[in-house]
Amino acid sequence: MDDRLFRDAMGKFATGVTVISTKVDERVHGMTANAFMSVSLNPKLVTISVATHAKMHSLLKQSGKYAVNFLTEDQKPLSMLFAGQMKDEPFEVDFDELGGTPVIPDSLAVVACDIVEAYDVGDHTLFVGAVTDIQVNEGEPLLFHAGKYSRKHEFA
């Protein structure tokens, strides 16, 4: 099967939109991702999947920690920025901090983690994080389906 067919099939699964954030040498970095999952309740573990060629891959190995910021439907510009879709537009992001990790203010939820395992799988690495802190806010999620952003009410 070809890559396009695989991508089209995977795109049929509606997901939330997250930004993975970390800090290296006092500089904050972010990457939009929808490859996130909760793994375990006891201990509290989550996993993100990052392409081995992505800049974030080496940054996570250096920092040893990350935050998963669940975006609200009003934070679509942040998703686009960290997905590299707004390169020519000036955009300043002020980060907060949770458990020593940079986080996006007003996200629907934020999970701060220390990396406890990393598994190379195909052209990605699965970074398993032990949850060190959580923050939850009110709002509606930003969703992604069939290659485009969606809002919860569009699925109702």
Automatic annotation (TrEMBL):
In terms of Gene3D superfamilies, this protein maps to: Electron Transport, Fmn-binding Protein, Chain A
**What would be an example GO MF term here?**
oxidoreductase activity
Flavin reductase like domain sequence ranges: 10-151
Superkingdom classification of source: Bacteria
The record's section on SMART domains has:
Flavin_Reduct
> Recorded E.C. number(s)?
1.-.-.-
Keyword Signal assigned to the entry: answer is no
- PANTHER family annotated for this entry? FLAVIN REDUCTASE, FMN REDUCTASE (NADH) RUTF
Kindly provide the name given to this protein in its UniProt entry.
Flavin reductase family protein
Query: What broad taxonomic lineage does this protein's source fall under?
Result: Bacteria, Bacillati, Bacillota, Bacilli, Bacillales
